[in-house]
Amino acid sequence: MDINFITNEQLYKQVIEPVSHANSFVWIGTADIKDLHVHHQGAVKSFLSVLDSLIKRKVAIRLLHAKEPGPNFRKSFDKYPLLWDSMERQLCPRVHFKHIIIDGKFAYSGSANLTGAGLGIKGENTRNFESGFITDNPKIVESVMNQFDEVWRGRFCKSCMRRDFCGDPIL
After folding, report:
1. What does pTM read for this prediction?
2. What is the count of structural domains for the chain?
3. Which is it for the CA torsion 97, 74, 44, 128, positive or negative?
4. Averaged pLDDT in 10-residue chunks for the chain of 171 residues
5. What is the domain range of residue 92?
6. Could you give the angle at the alpha carbon of 42 between the alpha carbons of 38 and 46, nearest 5°?
7. In the chain, which ranges are E strands?
């Protein structure tokens, strides 16, 4: 594969579907997060059920997002108690990148948030116009991982000029 530019409905098939095949970890960075729905095991389910099935297989999950999700996400999240303790979550109001990294071997970076209109199964007439790239190129995957990890570890927290807007500072 090396690197592929993808748009709109390709994002679902080439970014969301591979998540369920992760073996060791999935890192997700997004500005906005909603209770998106996906096809999983022959049914339409909340993406949280996919994450729950990964946790059951001992796949580590990190979710980094910019703001607290809305009530639909929270209601769905409450159905998956394994996620409460096992999925690592952090908030950073400055996160605007959209990354999905799988096992350190695959990366997506683009415009689509973790929402139905961005990466979910919405139809072509209700989907956002999105684009991004997917890659298995080790140098590019490493660069995407490094950006995610720098924010995750709080590298920018002490000098952040938006700290007043941070409800749960990393550092």
Report:
1. 0.95
2. 1
3. negative
4. 88 93 98 92 93 97 93 94 94 95 98 92 85 97 98 92 81 83
5. 3-165
6. 30
7. 3-7, 25-30, 37-40, 43-46, 60-65, 88-91, 98-102, 106-110, 131-135
